[in-house]
Amino acid sequence: MKQLVKAGITxxxxxxxxxxxxxxxxxxxxxVTGSAMGYGTSLIIGPVVGLFVAPWVGNTVDxxxxxxxxxxxxxxLILTLIMYFFVFELFHTNILISAIxxxxxxxxxxxxxxxxxxxxxxxxxxxxxxxxxxxIESTAATVSSILAPAIAGFLFGIMDFKWMIVLQIITETLxxxxxxxxxxxxxxxxxxxxxxxxxxIFKSLNKYxxxxxxxxxxxxxxxxxxxxVIGMPYxxxxxxxxxxxxxxxxxxxxxVGALIGGIxxxxxxxxxxxxxxxxxxxATSTQLLILGLMLFTLPRYVxxxxxxxxxVIGVLDAMSQPPMFTYIQKTVPERDxxxxxxxxxxxxxxLTPIAVFIFSVVFSKINYQMIFFINGVVSLLLTFLLxxxxxxxxxxxx
Length: 398
Prior knowledge:
Blueprint: H1 2-33, H2 36-39, H3 41-63, H4 66-87, H5 95-119, H6 121-124, H7 130-158, H8 161-181, H9 209-239, H10 244-267, H11 273-297, H12 302-331, H13 337-350, H14 352-363, H15 368-390, H16 392-397
Helix pairs in contact: 1-5, 1-7, 1-8, 3-5, 3-13, 4-5, 4-8, 5-13, 7-10, 7-12, 9-10, 9-11, 9-12, 9-14, 9-15, 10-12, 11-12, 11-15
Domain Major facilitator superfamily (MFS) profile: 211-398
GO molecular function: transmembrane transporter activity
Subcellular location: Cell membrane
């Protein structure tokens, strides 16, 4: 139980500190540059940097003791932030350049820490507590995502930005101390892998066909789920002419659903993790179809429909992620967890920018009700094709 508490607090402190800093940095860039591009710097750089360093992250995490990798990553991040604090005033006229450098280093060190910590779950808790730890960490991350924007906005209005840097230094130092205090069992190391032999990070998934299969299904459903992410604010603001505040409030309902879903999955014990993941895929695609049908048949209740389905998707996402991590951590040998988790993280980000671009164009050209309906049908057909036809042979071999 102490291990669960330490890991949960570590996740809250780390995620909350990083999120507050990222929001505050975005606000500072918007204030100085007046550019939306500056505001979205971290969103653009994150996936690019993640893809670039992914091969080194996975191999490093599996080639050394993961606690040591996590501690070194945190130490480097703290030193980077300390340097940024002292040189911030010097780069005040070129804040965008300095911000890009810091965001890159933040993303690199954060990726090493996150993958190391996630891959260390079997070394932190016993097998029967793996799902509970994943659920606690997921819920903690959700709580952080709810609190961070409000805290960052409030602090940004009452203090100079350089003190926001100090705040993250404090939270990262606390994360370092908590990680030191958390017991990690030694993880197995393949000493023959002294250097990276292949930069194809997805090659490691070939040994685990069911994990690869689940990844493919997840990537496909992530694409169709992007319709709501792009379509909801577009419809509410540009078509229905409501304010950005209304759109933001509807988006906020997702976090409420995610918090509730996280609490639910923390409290239950799954008899079949594999079966539960399949059920979540069906639930996700089915609700996308129902969303499309309701927008067609109940056009007067668009705001209510969007609010309801933001909540539902939040619940489903929060309930599906911890079991997926649990399945991976119980199926994949500990020596490969770093590479597999890195592959999953990277793959989840690769198609998102493409999906965002596609739906941004489509919503400006085609009736939104038709888009949501077709998207729901495609999502359900993809789920049926992948789970019941393509994946049937894989299921038998599992």
